[in-house]
Amino acid sequence: MNQKKDTFVIAVDGPSGSGKSSLCRETARRLGMTHINTGSYYRVIAWQISLRPGFSWTQEEVQSVCHEIEEKFHWDSTTGNPLWEGQICLKQLNSERMGKLASQAAQNTHVRQALKEVFRRHGCMDPHGTIMEGRDIGTEIFPGAALKIYVDLSAKVRAERRFRDEYPHLEGNPDNYPLELESLLTKIEQRDMRDSERDVAPLIKAEDALLFQNDKPFRESAANLVEIIKSSLSKK
Ligand code: DC
């Protein structure tokens, strides 16, 4: 890999629900960099495969879907919406079903290999820099990244944040609903375990990654991350 090009990449990894996507989008916007959310590529690949009944999962077929994705899938950088052939495809990608299919697609070695090449090409395109986020960016995709950040947030806080989405009819403090909170916490802990113990590209903090606790209000967190990136890049 071309080490020089890696100097444009900020690799951000972290568990599901840690708030890294919104944080990276805002940070990239403030720094005038490109933001790439790699999870959305796993979702778009799952979506496109689900539209091809009898898909055989051979290397050739997977590569052909990836080529189509490179051509037809883009982000609208002003609104932050994913586009397929120019049409917003947020609903298709963010459904519960697509999350499950994406997680299965992410276990497939042909998919990972094909997307790795896509990510490496896309990560080097913007001379102003790219913030690429996912699970294995600092460990597998850009081990020579200019800066690696591991965004974390305790499972308890993630459960509290998810509470409002999953139980919109329950009012007040989530701590008043210990059973519901406990069930969310269990789901989150199980998913963390699956992500960090899987054989293929498990979620682990790269040794040289900086640990970033995303537990402050959003604007404060984004401002902190902007400062960390600026100060790290000014030393290079
Ligand atoms: O972040 P997300 O939930 O949109 O990601 C969708 C799936 O893709 C999820 O199962 C984790 C997986 N993924 C991955 O394995 N490696 C990445 N770099 C990004 C996402």
How does this structure look, described?
This protein has eleven helices and eight strands. By secondary structure, the protein is of the alpha/beta class. The protein has two domains: 1-33 and 127-236, P-loop containing nucleotide triphosphate hydrolases (Rossmann fold); 38-125, no CATH class. The strands form two sheets. It has a five-stranded parallel beta sheet, sandwiched between helices. The structure holds 2'-deoxycytidine-5'-monophosphate. 2'-deoxycytidine-5'-monophosphate is lined by residues 16, 38-39, 42-43, 99, 102-103, 106, 134-136, 201.
How many domains would you count in the coordinates? 2
Percentage of β-strand residues = 5-15%
Bound molecules: 2'-deoxycytidine-5'-monophosphate
Low-pLDDT residue spans:
none
| CA(first)-CA(last) distance | 19 Å
Number of strands: 8
Helicity range: 40-55%
Largest sheet: 5 strands, parallel
Put simply, the count of helices is 11
CATH class of the largest domain: Alpha Beta
CATH level 3 topology of the largest domain = Rossmann fold
What would CATH call the architecture of the largest domain? 3-Layer(aba) Sandwich
Q: How does the helix and strand content classify structurally?
A: alpha/beta
This entry's quaternary arrangement is single chain
Mean pLDDT: 92
Shape: globular
Side-by-side strand order of the widest sheet: 2-6-1-7-8
Helix and strand pattern: HEHEHHEEEHHHEHEHHEH
CATH H-level name of the largest domain... which superfamily?
Answer: P-loop containing nucleotide triphosphate hydrolases
Radius of gyration using CA atoms only: 18 Å
